[in-house]
Amino acid sequence: MRKSTVVIIGGGAAGLSAAYTLKKHGIESILLEANDQIGGRMGGDRVDGFSVDAGADFFPACYDVAFRLCEELGLPLIRTKMNIGWRRKGRWVVTRPIESLGDFISNLAPFWTLEFLSPRGLWPTLKLVKSIKDDSEYLNYSSDHKIAELDGEETYGDYLDRLGIPESLRVTLEGFLELTMGNPEDFGATWIRAFLGEVLLKPEQLYVPEEGCSSLSYALADASEADIRLSTPVRQVVIRDGIVTGVTTDAGLIEADAVICAVQATKALELIPDLPPGIRHALGKVTYSRGIRVVVGLDHRPLPPPAGLSHCTPKTTPRRSWTGPSTCPPAHRPVRAHWTFGWARTALRNCFRSTMRRSGAGCSPTRAGTLLPAPTCPATTRCCLPACTAGGRPCAWGCPACSRR
User: Fold this and answer.
1) How many whole angstroms separate alpha carbon 78 and alpha carbon 55?
2) For residue 40, how many other CB atoms are within 10 A of its CB?
3) pTM
4) Rg of the chain in Å (alpha carbons)
5) Cα 329 to Cα 331: distance, rounded to the nearest angstrom
6) Each residue of 293-348: pLDDT tens digit?
7) Which residues contact residue 323 at a Cβ distance below 8 angstroms, ignoring those fewer than 6 apart?
């Protein structure tokens, strides 16, 4: 009997997770990715011994699916601290996660400089924090979230106006959010509030795989055993008499019994003809922001310590990460620095690849998946505490520190 063929369009986190899930159920798949490497917004590169995350670089506490996948695939997680350096009023100030009274006291001066505690900013800041705490049951991205029950037409910009957030505070918040969101004022207020609540109000629960978030993408690809075809854009999903029969690519038709479309909503509109009007309307309302990440190698610390530092303890292992201590070459320290480019974004996006190649800074010189080492046995390293405790089941990693063991 002929085996069923499932085609997955898109090699980002969704597509790779779909391929892995199908494999666990004994179903083989063909994964088609338009770009020359997998990962999408959870991708990355290996550059001169560094593993560089090109997109996501930490997991907040509510990412229960990511934690479960890391546990299943044996990817140790480490805690990451978000110490942030801000250039304000002609000098650098550093905010640190508040986990104790001492942390709160050490942040008072930076918070004053950033105007969270100023006469104009204090009351709006308190209203912002209270609104997030009051709706904390809904404001998360977990697999069983209720965030849609709060989602409405109000944008984040409208929400700031309603709270009376002064311009100086808007600049501070937007600069932080633009690192991930691109243009946050156009986002729904509910989704931005959820992000702020997870990142700023739960700083002790931010984790990252030892070798960067992109290592999860490559672990999923390996475990899925899918037929992954890079540089293979899909032109259209073929549907005959209401039944999916395959997809068309530049090389021709690939027959399929089922197709999983794991791409942006706007791209799905192009690929799938004759969608019901209600679905087309919903997908057509989705918008996306663009961002660009530039990683620059420096021979000295650019900011006063500990501004902009993620994990900076040097190690001798040859496998390290710029977001954690496990993917930098020996004698190197990972330093995280972000800038908001404003009008320069478009120009940077257009010239980024050619400029990086000419300068030798390294832009996608190799795919990290071919160079990342096999994961270390997690039972001898660290326990994925969120995954262990959230499920209420024994720790699959056998970690003695896990309370659920």
Assistant:
1) 18
2) 22
3) 0.73
4) 22
5) 7
6) 777 666 666 555 544 433 322 233 333 333 444 556 555 655 444 433 333 334 33
7) 53, 57, 58, 80, 208, 212, 213, 310, 311, 334, 336
